[in-house]
Design brief:
- It comes from Lentithecium fluviatile CBS 122367.
- Plays an important role in the elongation step of protein synthesis.
- The chain is mainly α.
- The protein has a domain of 59 residues: Arc Repressor Mutant, subunit A (Orthogonal Bundle), CATH 1.10.10.
- Helices cover 63% and strands 0% of the residues.
- The protein is elongated and about 55 Å long.
């Protein structure tokens, strides 16, 4: 990661920690206050657009969560729904195993 990206990332984290909206101008002013001169304005604009309307703290807390599985159905048909969910999970596992076996044979997207 370049110094420009790193400086802009840190500035975005500072703004998010303070609960301030992340804009290109605010990022640029923080970077200048830190006396980092070699950051081009394109970096602050890119980061501001990428983080616009997003909760940075929430993004950081859910880094490893991925898409996750759908929650199991509960309530009136709990036992039947639970059996269906288990069957769906087994089907998904079989599909994943099938995909993995293609890679073992040396076939790939870019081969």
């Amino acid at each position: 990661m370049s110094n420009s990206e790193l400086a802009t990332s840190y500035a975005a984290l500072i703004l998010a920690d303070d609960g301030v909206d992340i804009t290109a101008d605010k990022l640029q002013s923080l970077i200048k206050a830190a006396k980092i001169e070699d950051v081009e304005p394109i970096w602050t604009t890119l980061f501001a657009k990428a983080l616009e309307g997003k909760d940075v703290k929430d993004l950081l807390l859910n880094v490893g969560s991925g898409g996750g599985a759908a929650p199991a159905a509960g309530g009136a048909g709990g036992a039947a729904a639970g059996g269906e969910a288990a069957a769906e999970e087994k089907a998904e596992e079989k599909e994943e195993e099938k995909e993995e076996s293609d890679e073992d044979m040396g076939f790939g997207l870019f081969d």
